[in-house]
Write a sequence for this structure.
């Protein structure tokens, strides 16, 4: 019962809290830039306004354009149900394999890229091309950076890795783990479409990546895409916190442990979100041709972390 309750709490925390986290990040960034900024509930008000409008599809759009928003949202919810954000004792925790979770993330990315191509517009094709180029460099980094921890934990299950880190941090974390953490942090920025890889607040055709693929969406479809993007950002930050800052996560079956996990997970998400928003104020977007160099550097960091894990194991 506690495991089922933990999964339900995770789903509610991600589904409801993701737009609030995005709004908090926007407000922090606005304050640091000397602006008033939106309220914490503005993201939900925007989603509610969009959800009341009828979606309009381009004349040349096909099944991929229609299917992308629900696929993107479904993959986000499925990941939220299995990854260790609040608790490591989840009913579907056995499915939280590293390769499976990264595959689900890639499935949502591919669905949105196909939707951008399906519109037949120049912007959609440009954004899809850029997105898949970035994804081809990010996904291996995601795998290797977490694999550096799985070598020490002797498991590729994310719940087992988090539980090992919470119970025996000295076994899992060592100096080379900083390399894996830095690599995963860069990969999270790229996967979530944040600075310096992408700027979520721009619509300049020479710089946008994610926004180019969703320009043709409107109404309920756009609301679902924006909500799914907030969910993916929350999940990626939660995954970074759960694996490299696992302290406080519930590893037992007691109700007190679950409450502690909820509080610690919420606090870590807020801290990471605020830190990311503050960093983006002083961070400029990189030129598109420089992004592969950044991602290649993160891949090298992850590879060094894996090598050190085998040598020092």
């Amino acid at each position: 019962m506690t495991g089922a309750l933990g999964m339900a709490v995770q789903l509610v925390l991600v589904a409801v809290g993701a737009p609030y986290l995005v709004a908090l990040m926007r407000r922090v960034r606005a304050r640091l830039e000397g602006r008033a900024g939106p309220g914490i509930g503005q993201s939900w008000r925007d989603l509610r306004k969009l959800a009341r409008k009828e979606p309009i599809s381009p004349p040349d759009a096909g099944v991929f354009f229609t299917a992308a928003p629900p696929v993107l949202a479904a993959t986000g919810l499925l990941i939220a149900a299995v990854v260790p954000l609040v608790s490591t004792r989840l009913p579907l925790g056995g499915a939280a394999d590293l390769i499976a979770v990264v595959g689900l993330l890639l499935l949502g990315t591919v669905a949105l890229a196909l939707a951008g191509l399906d519109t037949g517009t120049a912007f959609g094709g440009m954004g899809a091309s850029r997105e898949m180029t970035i994804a081809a460099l990010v996904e291996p980094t995601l795998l290797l950076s977490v694999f550096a921890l799985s070598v020490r934990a002797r498991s590729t299950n994310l719940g087992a890795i988090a539980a090992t880190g919470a119970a025996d941090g000295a076994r899992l974390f060592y100096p080379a783990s900083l390399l894996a953490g830095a690599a995963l942090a860069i990969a999270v920025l790229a996967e979530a479409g944040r600075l310096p890889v992408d700027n979520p607040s721009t619509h300049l055709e020479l710089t946008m990546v994610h926004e180019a693929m969703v320009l043709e969406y409107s109404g309920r479809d756009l609301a679902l895409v924006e909500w799914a993007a907030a969910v993916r950002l929350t999940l990626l930050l939660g995954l970074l916190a759960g694996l490299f800052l696992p302290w406080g996560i519930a590893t037992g079956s007691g109700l007190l442990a679950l409450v502690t996990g909820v509080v610690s997970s919420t606090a870590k998400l807020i801290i990471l979100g605020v830190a990311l928003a503050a960093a983006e104020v002083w961070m400029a977007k990189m030129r598109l041709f420089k992004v592969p160099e950044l991602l290649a550097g993160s891949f090298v960091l992850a590879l060094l972390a894996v090598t050190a894990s085998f040598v020092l194991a």
About this structure: Residues 122-153 form the longest helix (32 residues). The radius of gyration is 19 Å.
